[in-house]
Specification:
This protein is of the alpha+beta class. The chain is about 15% helix and about 25% strand. Its cofactor is [2Fe-2S] cluster.
């Protein structure tokens, strides 16, 4: 099981065990974490699940699709670490991953 640390917009930190095949968005919703709205339910259509994934953790996930890249391009708070958590599917590993949930305010 992968251990994910979510750095939340209010400055708090939450640690969540994420099952293989689950997205970081679903794990956040399952644990009622603030900051990930997920208006489209994970269909890569709204960008309300924006997170910042530091480069050292990108190897655990697939490259962003063109749709994800296009949505991120329209976000004011986007940077080189921006990803949509609905597209970050956890693999079967014992990894520890850190993400920062974007402040959507």
């Amino acid at each position: 099981m992968t251990k994910v640390t979510y750095d939340l917009p209010d400055g708090s930190t939450e640690h969540v065990d994420v099952e293989p095949g689950e997205t970081l968005m679903n794990a956040a919703l399952r644990n009622n974490l603030p900051g990930i709205v997920a208006e489209c339910g994970g269909s890569c259509a709204c960008a309300t699940c924006h997170v910042h994934l530091p480069k050292q953790y990108t190897r655990f996930f697939a490259e962003p699709t063109d749709e994800e890249t296009d949505l991120i391009a329209y976000l004011d708070a986007a940077d080189d670490d921006s990803r949509l958590s609905c597209q970050l599917v956890v693999a079967d590993s014992e990894a520890e991953i850190h993400v920062r949930v974007a402040d959507s305010r």
